[in-house]
């Protein structure tokens, strides 16, 4: 008997040409301010999508409210521009009912950590297999420049004319505290790193939380300039890679070692070698907690660089899979007596 399978495979490849970034762009006019970091994030997402090997009809982008939340208009996939802070709730319902879909949640520091903060932490602890892209520009951009949950203390804005007295959220520390199974950080002005982290976000099975530093050039221009500009970036950033020592600096001569639980910057060749440095381990939750706090702990001595990369990844059952197993188990059992369930065992007598 002739095996026609190879021929069908060839015909399928001929009839279904490979997708490109242009296939994920829509005919909608992109309406962000000229120079906004959102343009770069959109471009990298569109470049990455063809390589994921997922049919466009199985990809969904869901957003809340904010500048970042215009994203679904510009992605030629299924999508929904939902309501403020509730993209995570809508995505949870969709994933529970259609677990085969690749679902991407696009949110901002205001949308995802203020009105939507409660939904975000519960999505993470439940571990739905979805991807959260949190654009952090440390300001409310859409509503014209009020301070946000990630704005630094003493920030003068339209809503804090004397300076904010709020202590800001650290998004990755918050996500780790909510038992997220994947947390990472990247930036809009490093396209290659952003693409690599988007791929890692997709590859993780579970709730992925990717914080993206995104410049708002109208209301908070230069908030992350020290980490993105060529002159300062080598000394102010460190890119953590699994299994490799924590090395940074323009000449690669600086590193971070752990003095107990205290990170310390050292110079290689001056009494220290790469063997003495902190080796990054994505599976170590204790070191991940240090890494999320490395730059905002006033108890630490000396100037420490801002870390980027995958901080932590854990293998945990996904909510939608456990729910499916529970439903299958329930089908195998004897159906409960609905009348008995409604009557219950507790009875009250109401006296007039």
Indicate the mean pLDDT: 93
Described by strand count, sense and barrel closure, the largest sheet is: 8 strands, mixed
Shape: globular
Radius of gyration: 24 Å
CATH classification, class level of the domain at 15-228? Alpha Beta
State the CATH superfamily name of the domain at 15-228: Thiamin diphosphate (ThDP)-binding fold, Pyr/PP domains
Domain Thiamine pyrophosphate enzyme TPP-binding: 65-212
Keywords: Oxidoreductase
Protein name: 2-oxoglutarate ferredoxin oxidoreductase subunit beta
InterPro entries: 2-oxoacid:Fd_oxidoreductase, THDP-binding, TPP_enzyme_TPP-bd
How does this structure look, described?
By secondary structure, this protein is of the alpha/beta class. The protein has a domain at 15-228: Thiamin diphosphate (ThDP)-binding fold, Pyr/PP domains (Rossmann fold, 3-Layer(aba) Sandwich), CATH 3.40.50.970. The chain is 31% helix and 17% strand. The protein contains 13 helices and eleven strands. It has an eight-stranded mixed sheet, with helices on both faces. The radius of gyration is 24 Å and the shape is globular. It starts with a helix and ends in a 9-residue tail after the last helix. The mean pLDDT is 93.
